[in-house]
Every structure is written in C-alpha cells, then in structure tokens.
Write a structure and sequence with these properties.
The structure is a single chain. The protein is an alpha+beta fold. Helix content is 31%, strand content 30%. It has five helices and eleven strands, in the order H-H-H-E-E-E-E-H-E-E-E-H-E-E-E-E. The strands form three sheets. A seven-stranded mixed β-sheet has the order 1-6-7-8-9-10-11, sandwiched between helices. Strands 2-3 form a two-stranded antiparallel sheet. The protein is globular, with a radius of gyration of 16 Å.
Length: 183
C-alpha cells in the first residue's frame, strides 16, 4: 500500500470519528478513548487485510522497545534517567495505534501516535518514536508512521494536523482548512 492510499483511508476514518464521536473532542476525553474510536473506524477503511490494534506492545513474540540515548531521553522528558553515563537505553513502548498483520514483522504498515491539543506532554517524544519506528536501522519494520494532533475543548472544531513519516524522517504534513487540505 502506498502513502496516498494510507492518507485517504486515515483521513476518512478521522472524518467519521469527528462526525460520529465529536463528543470525545468537545469534552476533551482521554487520548486513549479517542485513539480507540479512531482505530474502530480504521478497521472499516483498511479492510480485513490488516489488523488494527491500540497500545500493542509486541514485535512478534518480543516486547516492543526503542533505543534512545540518555541525553535525548532527558531532553524529551520531564523525568530524567538517573545515571551519569551517556548510554544507549532501551525503553518499552506502546504505540497508540498500529496497522499490521499480527505475528508477521514484514507486514507492519502504519504506526500512529495521537496527541490532544490540550496535552501538557510535549509531542517531541512521539515524533522521535515515529522516526525510530520507521527507520531501517531496527527490526520493527514499519513502512509509514503518522502523528495526529486532535484539537479538543475550545479548539474542538479545528481540523486535526497530520504528519507522516517514512525511512526515519518526516515526509509530509497536512492541515485541513475549511474542508480542504493545506500542505
């Protein structure tokens, strides 16, 4: 599946979420609730070829992990690691949504991180994770990644921002403006 096909399917699922479950955005509910509903609509737009899972922490039978330098971790998080050495650390990760085929690492199509506009947590760590997930330097084998920023509470009518990743870097950014995409 190519990026343009993923973009169409993901955009459709987002629009259905905003139409059917706008309550979640208006009331600024937990990010996991929004991710779950989006995943249910993605099951319809991606069809039966792929499995759609939330908070899935397995890479085949192993726990899904990323490697990150201590200094990068400290930079991206409010709670630094307690060590004086500059070391490469492995961190367990729980992606918000993945499109894959369970039990097959060569069928990892899309990995998604979701953030609300009202979140007090920086989106920088999510961006770094997406770069890592889509990089060929690890065994996770995700073809594409997407970062979706949903606007909630007072900004609830603003269309989400979507950033796409491939080969360890950002490749596309979309912001919907009054029903049209601005790139």
């Amino acid at each position: 599946m190519e990026l343009y096909q993923i973009k169409r399917r993901l955009s459709l699922a987002i629009e259905v979420l905003r139409l059917n479950d706008n309550y979640l955005l208006i009331n600024d509910v937990n990010e996991r609730s929004i991710s779950h509903k989006l995943a249910t609509y993605m099951e319809q737009t991606f069809g039966k070829t792929f499995d759609i899972d939330c908070e899935y922490n397995r890479n085949i039978g192993d726990i899904k992990k990323i490697s990150i330098l201590k200094s990068k971790w400290d930079e991206l998080n409010n709670y630094p690691m307690i060590t004086e050495d500059e070391i490469l650390c492995e961190k367990k990760v729980f992606p918000d949504i993945i499109v894959h085929k369970r039990g097959k690492s060569d069928k990892n199509l899309l990995i998604i991180e979701v953030k609300k506009s009202t979140s007090t947590v920086s989106e920088d760590y999510d961006i770094e994770k997406l770069k890592y997930y889509t990089s060929s330097t690890n065994d996770l084998n995700y073809k594409f990644g997407a970062f979706i920023k949903f606007y909630t509470a007072k900004e609830r009518y603003k269309s989400p921002e979507i950033r796409y990743f491939c080969d360890g870097k950002e490749v596309h950014k979309e912001i919907r403006v009054q029903g049209n995409y601005r790139i």
